[in-house]
């Protein structure tokens, strides 16, 4: 498994995948992207990740792998990167369009930049401790998208056959279930 390591919270993803017995490597160049069969795009700053994809010559090879159906998991800024449309994005910020969703950046309001919530997730038997940090909201989804969790009526976890996206940071909770779910999508 690869974890995009241009910017943001990539080390926590590597640690969690390792504790699930998955070999995970940091991806910073096209050669290492070639060597993995699935990818995690971490939280961080999506405007920076978007620019760094270009400067590291990763955008085109990544777009190709995604259109070939490589499984991908995006958290927070990673969700923004995998969307088809970004509201309140920057003009030079281009999403990868792996999942048919429109997201709004920094949508939970300035006064509550960060918070934790016990989230009910489809298929999980008990709530997931979810950490939101300047999180995006999913404003709308296409028919191909399976909604897995909502917070106050807003979609915060969803997926399609090969893509899983979360508004929050499952890599910062001591709970492996969402990573397990993604790993199950790669086999
Ligand atoms: N607000 C950030 C962005 O727009 C995402 C925040 C995060 O990943 N914690 O990219």
Description:
This protein has 187 residues and is α/β, with parallel strands linked by helices. The protein has a single domain, classed as Class I glutamine amidotransferase (GATase) domain (Rossmann fold, 3-Layer(aba) Sandwich). The chain is 26% helix and 28% strand. The chain is built from 6 helices and 12 strands. The chain has a 7-stranded mixed β-sheet with strand order 2-1-3-4-12-11-10. It has a 3-stranded mixed β-sheet with strand order 5-6-9. The protein has a two-stranded antiparallel ribbon with strand order 7-8. A hairpin with an 8-residue loop joins strand 7 and strand 8. The longest helix is centred in the first third of the chain and has 10 residues. It is globular and about 40 Å long. The model has no long low-confidence stretch (mean pLDDT 96).
| CATH fourth-tier homologous superfamily | Class I glutamine amidotransferase (GATase) domain
Query: What is the share of helical residues?
Result: 25-40%
Q: What low-confidence regions span 5 or more consecutive residues with pLDDT below 50? A: none
Task: Supply Rg.
Answer: 15 Å
Q: Compute the average pLDDT.
A: 96
Structural domains: how many: 1
Largest sheet entry: 7 strands, mixed
Terminal Cα span: 11 Å
**Helix run count:** 6
Strand content: 25-35%
Strand order of the largest sheet: 2-1-3-4-12-11-10
- What small-molecule ligands were found? glutamine
- Which CATH class applies here? Alpha Beta
Structural class: alpha/beta
The name CATH uses for the topology is Rossmann fold
**Total E-strand runs:** 12
CATH architecture level-2 label: 3-Layer(aba) Sandwich
Element pattern in H and E: EHEHEHHEHEEEEEEEEH
Quick one: overall form?
globular
């Amino acid at each position: 498994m690869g974890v995009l390591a241009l910017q943001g919270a990539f080390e926590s993803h590597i640690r969690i995948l390792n504790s699930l017995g998955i070999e995970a490597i940091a991806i910073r160049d096209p050669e290492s992207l070639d060597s993995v069969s699935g990818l995690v795009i971490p939280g961080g700053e999506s405007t920076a990740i978007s620019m760094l994809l270009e400067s590291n010559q990763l955008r085109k090879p990544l777009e190709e792998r995604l259109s070939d159906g490589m499984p991908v998991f995006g958290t927070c800024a990673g969700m923004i990167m995998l969307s088809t449309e970004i509201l309140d994005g920057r003009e030079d910020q281009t999403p990868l369009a792996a999942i048919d969703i429109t997201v709004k950046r920094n949508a939970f309001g300035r006064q509550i930049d960060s918070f934790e919530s016990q989230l009910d997730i489809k298929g999980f038997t008990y709530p997931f401790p979810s950490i939101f940090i300047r999180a995006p909201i999913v404003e709308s989804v296409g028919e191909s998208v399976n909604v897995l969790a909502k917070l106050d009526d807003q979609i915060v976890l969803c997926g399609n056959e090969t893509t899983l996206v979360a508004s929050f940071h499952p890599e910062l909770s001591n709970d492996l279930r969402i990573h397990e779910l993604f790993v199950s999508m790669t086999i």
